[in-house]
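User: My collaborator sent over this chain with a note saying "see what the structure looks like." That's all I know about it. Can you take a look?
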Amino acid sequence: MPHKISLTHLEEDKFDFLQNHKTIRIDGAEENVSTGVRPKALILSSLAGCTGIDVVDLLRKMRVEFSDFKIDVEGELTEEHPKTYHTVHLTYFIKVKEEDKSKMEKAVNLSQEKYCGVSSMVKKFAELNVKVEYL
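Assistant: Without extra context I'll predict from the sequence alone. Here is the result:
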């Protein structure tokens, strides 16, 4: 099933896009006056969301209790135009029991190698560095 996005120009560098009956603002203005998210940064948000959903689903299936789960993503842009991400750092933070750390590693590996389509796409244009930090 294809995904469909509808983008509408509002004013200046502001656009609203509609996805799945939900509206999100994109804004190219400087951060201090922006009213929306940056287009390139949405790639990083999509990466975090995709792999986060995978990991939570896999941990549930493995019956792993966890808390304080979050993901940080940082992308480094090229200097020349068009500026693209050349390196992306993906860090998972999670609290699990010591005996469940190997299951967390397995969930991350499955997400990265098998399930997360956004990770697969990112790897086509950037080096993707992945690590897990236990809280």
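A starting point for your reply to your collaborator: The radius of gyration is 17 Å.
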